[in-house]
């Protein structure tokens, strides 16, 4: 069975565990008819998605416990990771003022529409944002509840390490998000080649995505599969060394799809990252290689929600011409760094084969 086949099998179990955990919490806190729209927004927020983070946890567990991947069962950790991911996306969409994700209206948009259709007083936009913040908070509570359930199944030393790692993960995402929105506020002077920094963009990607999407979930899974934390400390270091560059490559591929991806596949409108003004490594590499006139064309769309389709098309062509090849080379470098660490590691051949397949899935995806 290939890794892709195993992932396809595991996704159904992850979906089931995530829905069950969320439904249980909604019932436990007394969600009723008056909060029907809230409950619907909460449940809808966890639908869809690739479940990469939960799948990464299964990979870490399989390597740590020397267990066949398709036999791994991690319902609580799977739910915790996917519920936290949903929480982060709800808040991210509010920050980005994004009206659509995975081809569906975002929670703040749905709740704003509910306010408008109910003829309530006040601003529908404000209500949608405020209510969606609470949706994200609820999902975060559900994530921590599921993580607590997972910790209760572990030895005391592993439970402590697990709790520290989970807290580290969501704290680091907050830091990365702050660095991201700070970068977006920095003025861009088309006359300055150094107005954008590739290294700064990679730092944001490291904290906001690479560690969170790939490294931390795998290590959390590895901790869950260990007989004691002492038995897994070396593996934690090995996984961190291998997966960090691959996690960055995963995010850089995501950034490429944010500009060039097919909306029917990615679930996001074409050029969305440009309209949102994302200061990605792809944009930084493009900026460094562009003329002042080309940079002015880029600033016409970056962070401009009403940028026309023609302006987006022009900016996309500039990115294609000046940044895409260098960006692809950076992805290749990161992939090679991870492979070099893998080949010199103490992992057995089965684990190496598993991780090689994983790298391909992470870094060559089209959605």
Automatic annotation (TrEMBL):
GO terms for biological process: isoprenoid biosynthetic process. PROSITE patterns: POLYPRENYL_SYNTHASE_1 (PS00723). InterPro entries: Isoprenoid_synthase_dom_sf, Polyprenyl_synt, Polyprenyl_synt_CS. The keyword Metal-binding applies. It comes from Schaalia odontolytica. One of its GO terms (molecular function) is metal ion binding. Pfam families: polyprenyl_synt. This is Octaprenyl-diphosphate synthase. The keyword Transferase applies. Keywords: Magnesium, Metal-binding, Transferase. It is an enzyme of class 2 (transferase). Its cofactor is Mg(2+). Belongs to the FPP/GGPP synthase family. Its EC number is 2.5.1.90. SUPFAM superfamilies: Terpenoid synthases.
